[in-house]
Amino acid sequence: xxxxxxxxxxxxxxxDEQVKRELLNLIIEKGITHEVxxxxxxxxxxxxxxxxxxxxxxxxxxxxxKAAEAEFAAAAEAAKAQLDSEMDQVQKExxxxxxxxxxxxxxxxAQVIKDKISQ
Length: 119
Description:
The chain is mainly alpha-helical. The chain has helices spanning 3-12, 17-30, 34-54, 63-118. The longest helix has 56 residues, at 63-118. The termini are far apart.
């Protein structure tokens, strides 16, 4: 789906008008990013759940929903842990680059001073 198709999908949906405006503004502000697509999916999921609840069916209390929710929570926690680990590695690498750069600058300044003295 391209941007136009997604905009038409949102506009022609039976989502609440306020939700439609929020989603369309999000598309305008950020474009079609993963975050925006996730927001659109969430809005549709919430609308389906609300419709089912209004009809007397609460899918959030089913074993399948609870299992999917637990799986999602575990996956989110694993992703966060991986991100934290990768960020720690990036910070270590940045520290090493800063240290190396400082050493090179010190060596360069020492060389400049030696050159001035030898003149």
